[in-house]
């Protein structure tokens, strides 16, 4: 566990926040610092074919054990960026050597309570890393980077674990949906891969949301309210009217499991001009298309009612449900389940209420389900990571390497 702890604490000290408003790739220069240092570390560990391309993708190879060169090539992938939702700079992690199952004090004014976060009960007795309540932690997905790098170190030092060729890869900009925009699947050269980007112990995910973004720009007409009748178009009121046309029950806070939603993530403006942004999600491709059609219909209705094109809509698909690409290869899931059980982990197969790089990679020809890390409460000040679970993740990856080598 010591190697895992030291690596995780080192990696989370890097500020790698991505920026959804950037027009560059990666979206922030600071991500390249950690990516460059990972390349150096991979070379020092003895990986071969280590490369950092012009987009910042870092890849490398753990050569096959002697006599195992013809086995399937397996990849392990994690992203280095942290969410734009909260600062990832100057992270001050706190270590709980043996969690007692109670409320956790993050700082003098902030508690993480078992009432608000009941899943904490699972981690009683675990060694935890938490924030100090002022930043996110960065376990999403530096916990995954940690597990992969420690697996690589172990396989290169311990020749008793026999395995085929293994490729590892680290990507930027996953948190803003651009993580594999330029990822060269053919050059990566894996037959199958796993993103190591999940949370709860045992998570094994090969179903995710279909995802789209919707940006709306509303051009109003500001007239003095004393003489506004028949003349004013209040852009903020138009925004409220549009939001009211979407199903009330289809919001993140009111949905679970396979239920999709519309999530209003931005609203700003004035009487004269306003902007809105939604993310649209559903596991069902049919319901996903219906949700997109509904917001298009709402825009068309309001524009017709107002007698002019007051609202303009930018609707963009982001990724799709990887299930259709993974299910034809059941061995990818079966071996992951076996690897978990050997690490004393109970597999928890469930749909992701989100997405990973693996979703897009699956549609790019690389079937790529997602594995747990032990990181929890991603994207905010309540984020924490169980080092106890992260160690089980590490052993799961070792087991996967061996099991694929035995095929």
From TrEMBL:
This is Peptidase T. Its cofactor is Zn(2+). Zn(2+) 1 binds at residues 79, 140, 197. The keyword GTP-binding does not apply. It is an enzyme of class 3 (hydrolase). It is found in: Cytoplasm. SUPFAM superfamilies: Bacterial exopeptidase dimerisation domain, Zn-dependent exopeptidases. Zn(2+) 2 binds at residues 140, 175, 379. The gene is pepT. The active site is at residues 81, 174. Belongs to the peptidase M20B family. The keyword Phosphoprotein does not apply. It comes from the Bacteria. Residues 206-307 form the Peptidase M20 dimerisation domain. PANTHER family: PEPTIDASE T. Keywords: Aminopeptidase, Cytoplasm, Hydrolase, Metal-binding, Metalloprotease, Protease, Zinc. Cleaves the N-terminal amino acid of tripeptides. Pfam families: M20_dimer, Peptidase_M20. It catalyses: Release of the N-terminal residue from a tripeptide. Its main location: cytoplasm. InterPro entries: ArgE/DapE_CS (IPR001261), Bact_exopeptidase_dim_dom (IPR036264), Peptidase_M20 (IPR002933), Peptidase_M20_dimer (IPR011650), Peptidase_M20B (IPR010161). PROSITE patterns: ARGE_DAPE_CPG2_1, ARGE_DAPE_CPG2_2.
